[in-house]
Amino acid sequence: MKFSQAPIIVDLSARRVSCLSGRVEDDGKVFVEGYSQYAHKGIEKGSITDPEQLEKAIIAALRSLEAQTQRIIRNIVLVLPSRAIQTQTLTKTISLQTNQVQRSDIEALIQSAVADIPPQYAVLHAVPVGYGIDENVGIRDPRGLFGKTLSSRISVMMTPLNTLKNYLGVFERAYVKVDTCLANPICTGLGVLTPDQQESGTCLVDMGSAETTLSCFHRGSLIHTSSFGFGGFQLTESLSKAYHLSWHQAERLKTLFGTAMTTPLGQEETLPFQVEKGHSAGLPITRNAVAQVLQPPLKKLILSIYQSLDQINPKLRFRFEVCLTGGGMNLTGLADYFSLLGEHPCVRVYPLQVETKSPDMTMGLSQGTLIGALRYLHLHQTLRETPTLNNFFQKIHRMGLWLKQKIV
Protein backbone atom coordinates (compact mmCIF):
# COMPACT_ATOMS: atom_id res chain seq x y z
CA MET A 1 0.00 0.00 0.00
CA LYS A 2 1.55 3.29 -1.12
CA PHE A 3 0.46 6.68 0.14
CA SER A 4 0.25 9.74 -2.10
CA GLN A 5 0.32 11.93 1.01
CA ALA A 6 1.89 11.52 4.43
CA PRO A 7 -0.11 8.72 6.11
CA ILE A 8 -2.31 9.48 9.11
CA ILE A 9 -1.68 7.14 12.05
CA VAL A 10 -4.30 6.77 14.79
CA ASP A 11 -3.29 4.94 17.95
CA LEU A 12 -6.12 3.87 20.25
CA SER A 13 -4.97 3.28 23.80
CA ALA A 14 -7.14 2.58 26.83
CA ARG A 15 -7.43 6.26 27.77
CA ARG A 16 -6.23 8.31 24.81
CA VAL A 17 -6.65 8.77 21.06
CA SER A 18 -3.34 9.85 19.50
CA CYS A 19 -2.96 10.95 15.88
CA LEU A 20 0.13 11.66 13.82
CA SER A 21 0.89 12.71 10.28
CA GLY A 22 4.41 12.17 9.04
CA ARG A 23 6.78 10.25 6.83
CA VAL A 24 10.11 8.45 6.91
CA GLU A 25 12.79 9.87 4.62
CA ASP A 26 15.04 7.69 2.48
CA ASP A 27 17.85 8.14 5.02
CA GLY A 28 15.63 6.76 7.78
CA LYS A 29 14.84 10.06 9.51
CA VAL A 30 11.27 10.51 10.70
CA PHE A 31 9.57 13.82 9.88
CA VAL A 32 6.37 14.68 11.75
CA GLU A 33 3.94 17.14 10.14
CA GLY A 34 1.34 17.15 12.90
CA TYR A 35 0.43 15.48 16.17
CA SER A 36 -2.65 15.54 18.39
CA GLN A 37 -4.24 13.57 21.20
CA TYR A 38 -7.52 13.52 23.07
CA ALA A 39 -8.52 11.74 26.27
CA HIS A 40 -11.44 9.32 26.45
CA LYS A 41 -12.93 6.55 28.60
CA GLY A 42 -14.47 4.50 25.82
CA ILE A 43 -12.22 1.40 25.88
CA GLU A 44 -11.86 -1.21 28.62
CA LYS A 45 -9.72 -4.34 28.35
CA GLY A 46 -9.29 -3.85 24.61
CA SER A 47 -13.03 -3.64 23.85
CA ILE A 48 -15.20 -0.60 23.18
CA THR A 49 -17.49 0.18 26.11
CA ASP A 50 -18.66 3.68 25.14
CA PRO A 51 -18.65 4.09 21.33
CA GLU A 52 -20.16 7.57 21.44
CA GLN A 53 -17.44 8.95 23.70
CA LEU A 54 -14.73 7.23 21.67
CA GLU A 55 -16.18 8.66 18.45
CA LYS A 56 -16.15 12.19 19.89
CA ALA A 57 -12.52 11.77 20.99
CA ILE A 58 -11.50 10.51 17.53
CA ILE A 59 -13.24 13.42 15.78
CA ALA A 60 -11.66 15.96 18.15
CA ALA A 61 -8.17 14.54 17.68
CA LEU A 62 -8.53 14.38 13.87
CA ARG A 63 -9.88 17.94 13.70
CA SER A 64 -6.85 19.18 15.59
CA LEU A 65 -4.57 17.31 13.21
CA GLU A 66 -6.45 18.67 10.18
CA ALA A 67 -5.88 22.21 11.45
CA GLN A 68 -2.14 21.55 11.74
CA THR A 69 -1.70 19.84 8.37
CA GLN A 70 -4.23 21.92 6.41
CA ARG A 71 -5.81 18.84 4.86
CA ILE A 72 -9.07 16.91 5.15
CA ILE A 73 -8.50 13.46 6.63
CA ARG A 74 -10.53 10.70 5.00
CA ASN A 75 -8.20 7.70 5.35
CA ILE A 76 -6.16 6.52 8.32
CA VAL A 77 -3.97 3.64 9.48
CA LEU A 78 -5.25 2.25 12.77
CA VAL A 79 -3.05 0.87 15.56
CA LEU A 80 -5.15 -1.46 17.70
CA PRO A 81 -4.62 -1.57 21.48
CA SER A 82 -2.55 -4.44 22.86
CA ARG A 83 -5.38 -5.97 24.86
CA ALA A 84 -7.46 -6.33 21.69
CA ILE A 85 -4.74 -8.52 20.16
CA GLN A 86 -4.02 -12.21 20.65
CA THR A 87 -0.86 -14.01 19.60
CA GLN A 88 -0.45 -17.64 18.57
CA THR A 89 2.75 -19.34 17.41
CA LEU A 90 2.32 -22.13 14.87
CA THR A 91 4.98 -24.49 13.50
CA LYS A 92 4.36 -25.21 9.82
CA THR A 93 6.12 -27.31 7.19
CA ILE A 94 5.46 -27.45 3.45
CA SER A 95 7.00 -29.36 0.55
CA LEU A 96 8.86 -27.23 -1.98
CA GLN A 97 7.40 -27.17 -5.48
CA THR A 98 10.93 -27.04 -6.85
CA ASN A 99 14.16 -27.88 -5.10
CA GLN A 100 14.93 -24.17 -4.60
CA VAL A 101 13.10 -21.88 -2.17
CA GLN A 102 11.17 -19.10 -3.90
CA ARG A 103 9.26 -16.17 -2.48
CA SER A 104 6.04 -17.98 -3.38
CA ASP A 105 7.07 -20.85 -1.08
CA ILE A 106 7.46 -18.45 1.86
CA GLU A 107 4.06 -16.94 1.11
CA ALA A 108 2.51 -20.41 0.94
CA LEU A 109 4.08 -21.26 4.30
CA ILE A 110 2.61 -18.14 5.89
CA GLN A 111 -0.79 -18.76 4.33
CA SER A 112 -0.82 -22.29 5.72
CA ALA A 113 -0.51 -20.79 9.20
CA VAL A 114 -3.19 -18.14 8.54
CA ALA A 115 -5.53 -20.87 7.28
CA ASP A 116 -5.39 -22.54 10.71
CA ILE A 117 -6.77 -19.45 12.47
CA PRO A 118 -10.48 -19.77 13.33
CA PRO A 119 -12.79 -17.69 11.10
CA GLN A 120 -13.97 -15.57 14.05
CA TYR A 121 -10.55 -13.87 14.10
CA ALA A 122 -8.99 -11.34 11.72
CA VAL A 123 -5.26 -11.78 11.17
CA LEU A 124 -3.19 -8.59 11.47
CA HIS A 125 0.34 -9.97 11.09
CA ALA A 126 1.87 -13.38 10.38
CA VAL A 127 5.63 -13.22 10.98
CA PRO A 128 8.02 -16.18 10.47
CA VAL A 129 10.54 -16.53 13.30
CA GLY A 130 13.45 -18.29 11.60
CA TYR A 131 13.28 -20.97 8.92
CA GLY A 132 14.35 -24.54 8.47
CA ILE A 133 15.17 -26.44 5.26
CA ASP A 134 15.01 -30.21 5.66
CA GLU A 135 17.06 -30.88 8.81
CA ASN A 136 18.85 -27.52 8.83
CA VAL A 137 17.32 -24.93 11.19
CA GLY A 138 18.09 -21.35 12.26
CA ILE A 139 18.07 -19.95 8.72
CA ARG A 140 17.36 -16.21 8.50
CA ASP A 141 16.53 -15.94 4.78
CA PRO A 142 15.91 -19.21 2.91
CA ARG A 143 15.37 -17.73 -0.55
CA GLY A 144 17.61 -19.36 -3.14
CA LEU A 145 18.59 -22.29 -0.93
CA PHE A 146 17.95 -25.89 -1.99
CA GLY A 147 16.00 -28.60 -0.23
CA LYS A 148 12.80 -30.63 -0.16
CA THR A 149 10.84 -29.05 2.74
CA LEU A 150 10.55 -25.57 4.22
CA SER A 151 9.51 -25.04 7.85
CA SER A 152 9.14 -22.13 10.27
CA ARG A 153 7.65 -21.04 13.57
CA ILE A 154 5.13 -18.38 12.58
CA SER A 155 3.89 -15.78 15.07
CA VAL A 156 0.31 -14.87 14.16
CA MET A 157 -1.20 -11.71 15.65
CA MET A 158 -4.97 -11.50 15.42
CA THR A 159 -8.02 -9.80 16.87
CA PRO A 160 -11.59 -11.05 17.32
CA LEU A 161 -13.62 -10.22 14.23
CA ASN A 162 -16.45 -8.65 16.24
CA THR A 163 -13.97 -6.46 18.10
CA LEU A 164 -12.54 -5.26 14.78
CA LYS A 165 -16.05 -4.59 13.44
CA ASN A 166 -16.76 -2.40 16.48
CA TYR A 167 -13.61 -0.34 15.95
CA LEU A 168 -14.26 0.07 12.24
CA GLY A 169 -17.85 1.05 12.95
CA VAL A 170 -16.74 3.94 15.15
CA PHE A 171 -14.51 5.29 12.36
CA GLU A 172 -17.26 4.76 9.77
CA ARG A 173 -19.56 6.99 11.84
CA ALA A 174 -16.78 9.58 11.90
CA TYR A 175 -16.65 9.39 8.05
CA VAL A 176 -13.10 8.03 8.10
CA LYS A 177 -11.96 4.92 6.25
CA VAL A 178 -9.45 2.58 7.87
CA ASP A 179 -6.97 1.51 5.19
CA THR A 180 -5.25 -1.10 7.32
CA CYS A 181 -4.74 -2.13 10.95
CA LEU A 182 -1.45 -2.66 12.78
CA ALA A 183 -0.68 -4.32 16.11
CA ASN A 184 0.50 -2.07 18.93
CA PRO A 185 3.44 -4.26 20.11
CA ILE A 186 5.10 -4.37 16.69
CA CYS A 187 4.77 -0.60 16.22
CA THR A 188 6.08 0.20 19.69
CA GLY A 189 9.13 -2.00 19.17
CA LEU A 190 9.97 -0.27 15.90
CA GLY A 191 9.45 3.14 17.53
CA VAL A 192 11.76 2.76 20.53
CA LEU A 193 14.22 -0.09 19.83
CA THR A 194 17.25 0.04 17.58
CA PRO A 195 17.77 -2.71 14.97
CA ASP A 196 20.59 -4.12 17.12
CA GLN A 197 18.28 -4.41 20.13
CA GLN A 198 15.63 -6.19 18.07
CA GLU A 199 18.30 -8.51 16.67
CA SER A 200 20.17 -9.47 19.84
CA GLY A 201 17.07 -10.03 22.01
CA THR A 202 15.03 -7.52 24.02
CA CYS A 203 12.09 -7.75 26.39
CA LEU A 204 10.23 -4.45 26.01
CA VAL A 205 7.87 -3.38 28.80
CA ASP A 206 5.53 -0.58 27.71
CA MET A 207 3.52 0.95 30.58
CA GLY A 208 0.66 3.19 29.55
CA SER A 209 -2.08 4.86 31.53
CA ALA A 210 -4.26 1.78 32.00
CA GLU A 211 -2.33 -1.20 30.63
CA THR A 212 1.18 -2.58 30.36
CA THR A 213 2.42 -4.61 27.40
CA LEU A 214 5.33 -7.07 27.35
CA SER A 215 6.88 -7.69 23.92
CA CYS A 216 9.90 -9.89 23.23
CA PHE A 217 12.02 -9.35 20.12
CA HIS A 218 14.73 -11.66 18.79
CA ARG A 219 16.47 -11.88 15.43
CA GLY A 220 14.49 -8.88 14.26
CA SER A 221 11.07 -10.45 14.91
CA LEU A 222 8.42 -10.23 17.60
CA ILE A 223 8.37 -13.67 19.26
CA HIS A 224 6.03 -13.09 22.22
CA THR A 225 3.57 -10.55 23.54
CA SER A 226 1.27 -10.35 26.56
CA SER A 227 -0.62 -7.55 28.27
CA PHE A 228 -1.54 -6.68 31.84
CA GLY A 229 -4.43 -4.53 33.04
CA PHE A 230 -2.23 -2.17 35.03
CA GLY A 231 -0.87 1.28 34.28
CA GLY A 232 -0.19 4.73 35.63
CA PHE A 233 -3.85 5.31 36.54
CA GLN A 234 -3.71 2.46 39.05
CA LEU A 235 -0.74 4.12 40.76
CA THR A 236 -2.67 7.36 41.01
CA GLU A 237 -5.62 5.47 42.45
CA SER A 238 -3.39 3.89 45.12
CA LEU A 239 -2.18 7.32 46.26
CA SER A 240 -5.71 8.72 46.21
CA LYS A 241 -7.00 5.95 48.48
CA ALA A 242 -4.00 5.94 50.81
CA TYR A 243 -4.08 9.67 51.53
CA HIS A 244 -7.76 10.47 50.82
CA LEU A 245 -6.75 12.84 48.04
CA SER A 246 -8.80 13.83 45.03
CA TRP A 247 -7.82 12.21 41.75
CA HIS A 248 -6.13 15.38 40.49
CA GLN A 249 -4.22 15.87 43.74
CA ALA A 250 -3.01 12.26 43.68
CA GLU A 251 -1.94 12.58 40.04
CA ARG A 252 -0.04 15.75 40.89
CA LEU A 253 1.64 14.04 43.85
CA LYS A 254 2.70 11.11 41.67
CA THR A 255 3.98 13.34 38.85
CA LEU A 256 6.03 15.69 41.03
CA PHE A 257 7.22 13.45 43.86
CA GLY A 258 6.38 9.86 42.95
CA THR A 259 9.19 7.32 43.32
CA ALA A 260 9.50 3.55 43.36
CA MET A 261 12.54 3.43 45.65
CA THR A 262 12.98 4.45 49.28
CA THR A 263 16.15 6.30 50.33
CA PRO A 264 17.62 7.47 53.64
CA LEU A 265 16.98 11.09 52.70
CA GLY A 266 13.45 10.32 51.54
CA GLN A 267 12.35 9.54 55.10
CA GLU A 268 13.05 13.13 56.13
CA GLU A 269 11.86 14.85 52.95
CA THR A 270 8.42 16.34 53.66
CA LEU A 271 6.28 17.05 50.61
CA PRO A 272 3.82 19.97 50.18
CA PHE A 273 0.88 17.55 50.52
CA GLN A 274 -0.96 16.30 53.57
CA VAL A 275 -3.49 13.60 54.38
CA GLU A 276 -6.98 15.00 53.84
CA LYS A 277 -9.14 12.62 55.92
CA GLY A 278 -9.05 9.79 58.44
CA HIS A 279 -7.11 9.36 61.65
CA SER A 280 -3.97 10.72 59.95
CA ALA A 281 -5.66 13.88 58.66
CA GLY A 282 -3.35 16.87 58.59
CA LEU A 283 -0.14 14.85 58.79
CA PRO A 284 2.52 15.63 56.19
CA ILE A 285 3.51 13.11 53.50
CA THR A 286 7.15 12.11 53.02
CA ARG A 287 8.76 10.91 49.80
CA ASN A 288 9.48 7.48 51.31
CA ALA A 289 5.83 7.19 52.34
CA VAL A 290 4.83 7.72 48.72
CA ALA A 291 7.25 4.98 47.62
CA GLN A 292 5.82 2.60 50.22
CA VAL A 293 2.32 3.13 48.81
CA LEU A 294 3.43 2.60 45.20
CA GLN A 295 5.67 -0.41 45.76
CA PRO A 296 3.00 -3.12 46.45
CA PRO A 297 1.05 -2.65 43.17
CA LEU A 298 4.30 -2.21 41.25
CA LYS A 299 5.74 -5.35 42.78
CA LYS A 300 2.66 -7.32 41.76
CA LEU A 301 2.99 -6.08 38.16
CA ILE A 302 6.74 -6.68 37.92
CA LEU A 303 6.51 -10.20 39.32
CA SER A 304 3.68 -10.97 36.86
CA ILE A 305 5.87 -9.76 33.99
CA TYR A 306 8.83 -11.89 35.04
CA GLN A 307 6.54 -14.86 35.63
CA SER A 308 5.30 -14.46 32.04
CA LEU A 309 8.91 -14.45 30.83
CA ASP A 310 9.77 -17.53 32.88
CA GLN A 311 6.86 -19.42 31.32
CA ILE A 312 8.45 -18.88 27.90
CA ASN A 313 11.98 -19.65 29.04
CA PRO A 314 13.36 -19.34 32.62
CA LYS A 315 16.64 -18.00 31.23
CA LEU A 316 15.01 -15.39 29.01
CA ARG A 317 15.22 -12.50 31.49
CA PHE A 318 18.96 -13.05 31.84
CA ARG A 319 19.69 -13.62 28.14
CA PHE A 320 17.62 -10.68 26.85
CA GLU A 321 17.98 -7.00 27.63
CA VAL A 322 14.97 -5.69 29.57
CA CYS A 323 13.89 -2.24 28.37
CA LEU A 324 11.19 0.00 29.82
CA THR A 325 9.18 2.56 27.85
CA GLY A 326 5.85 4.38 27.87
CA GLY A 327 4.46 7.33 29.78
CA GLY A 328 3.97 5.24 32.94
CA MET A 329 7.71 4.63 33.11
CA ASN A 330 8.40 8.27 33.98
CA LEU A 331 8.16 7.35 37.66
CA THR A 332 11.48 8.02 39.40
CA GLY A 333 13.39 4.87 40.35
CA LEU A 334 11.13 2.49 38.43
CA ALA A 335 13.96 1.01 36.35
CA ASP A 336 15.94 0.41 39.57
CA TYR A 337 12.93 -1.29 41.16
CA PHE A 338 12.53 -3.54 38.10
CA SER A 339 16.23 -4.42 38.32
CA LEU A 340 15.97 -5.15 42.05
CA LEU A 341 13.03 -7.53 41.78
CA GLY A 342 14.14 -9.16 38.54
CA GLU A 343 17.78 -9.55 39.57
CA HIS A 344 18.75 -8.26 36.16
CA PRO A 345 19.63 -4.73 34.93
CA CYS A 346 16.83 -2.79 33.22
CA VAL A 347 17.19 0.36 31.11
CA ARG A 348 14.82 3.09 29.96
CA VAL A 349 14.35 3.54 26.21
CA TYR A 350 12.72 6.50 24.51
CA PRO A 351 11.00 7.12 21.16
CA LEU A 352 13.47 7.46 18.32
CA GLN A 353 14.37 11.05 17.47
CA VAL A 354 12.14 12.84 14.98
CA GLU A 355 12.12 16.12 13.11
CA THR A 356 8.99 18.23 13.42
CA LYS A 357 7.37 20.77 11.13
CA SER A 358 7.28 23.36 13.90
CA PRO A 359 9.88 23.81 16.67
CA ASP A 360 6.97 24.39 19.08
CA MET A 361 5.49 20.93 18.42
CA THR A 362 6.00 18.64 21.41
CA MET A 363 5.47 14.90 21.53
CA GLY A 364 5.19 12.89 24.72
CA LEU A 365 7.52 10.09 25.72
CA SER A 366 4.63 7.66 25.21
CA GLN A 367 4.32 8.26 21.45
CA GLY A 368 6.85 5.69 20.27
CA THR A 369 3.96 3.60 18.91
CA LEU A 370 3.02 6.27 16.35
CA ILE A 371 6.62 6.66 15.23
CA GLY A 372 6.97 2.89 14.95
CA ALA A 373 3.83 2.69 12.79
CA LEU A 374 5.38 5.18 10.36
CA ARG A 375 8.56 3.09 10.26
CA TYR A 376 6.53 -0.07 9.68
CA LEU A 377 4.76 1.48 6.69
CA HIS A 378 8.11 2.67 5.33
CA LEU A 379 9.63 -0.81 5.66
CA HIS A 380 6.59 -2.33 3.93
CA GLN A 381 6.12 0.02 1.01
CA THR A 382 4.13 -2.67 -0.78
CA LEU A 383 2.16 -3.61 2.32
CA ARG A 384 -0.42 -6.29 1.62
CA GLU A 385 -2.98 -7.33 4.20
CA THR A 386 -3.59 -11.03 4.68
CA PRO A 387 -6.53 -12.35 2.59
CA THR A 388 -8.73 -12.69 5.69
CA LEU A 389 -8.33 -9.05 6.69
CA ASN A 390 -8.30 -7.71 3.13
CA ASN A 391 -11.57 -9.43 2.24
CA PHE A 392 -13.12 -8.18 5.46
CA PHE A 393 -12.21 -4.56 4.69
CA GLN A 394 -13.65 -4.93 1.18
CA LYS A 395 -16.95 -6.19 2.62
CA ILE A 396 -17.09 -3.31 5.11
CA HIS A 397 -16.40 -0.80 2.33
CA ARG A 398 -19.15 -2.25 0.11
CA MET A 399 -21.55 -2.19 3.07
CA GLY A 400 -20.74 1.49 3.67
CA LEU A 401 -21.41 2.36 0.02
CA TRP A 402 -24.76 0.50 0.16
CA LEU A 403 -25.78 2.38 3.34
CA LYS A 404 -24.87 5.75 1.79
CA GLN A 405 -26.97 4.96 -1.29
CA LYS A 406 -29.95 4.05 0.89
CA ILE A 407 -29.62 7.18 3.00
CA VAL A 408 -29.45 9.42 -0.07
Describe the structure.
The strands form 5 sheets. The protein has a 6-stranded mixed beta sheet with strand order 11-6-1-2-3-19, with helices on both faces. A 5-stranded mixed beta sheet has the order 14-13-12-17-18, sandwiched between helices. The protein has 3 domains: 1-84 and 159-193 and 350-408, Nucleotidyltransferase, domain 5 (2-Layer Sandwich); 85-158, Dna Ligase, domain 1 (2-Layer Sandwich); 195-348, Nucleotidyltransferase, domain 5 (2-Layer Sandwich). Helix content is 38%, strand content 29%. By secondary structure, the protein is an alpha/beta fold. It has 12 helices and 19 strands. Helix 6 (232-243) packs antiparallel against helix 8. The chain is globular.
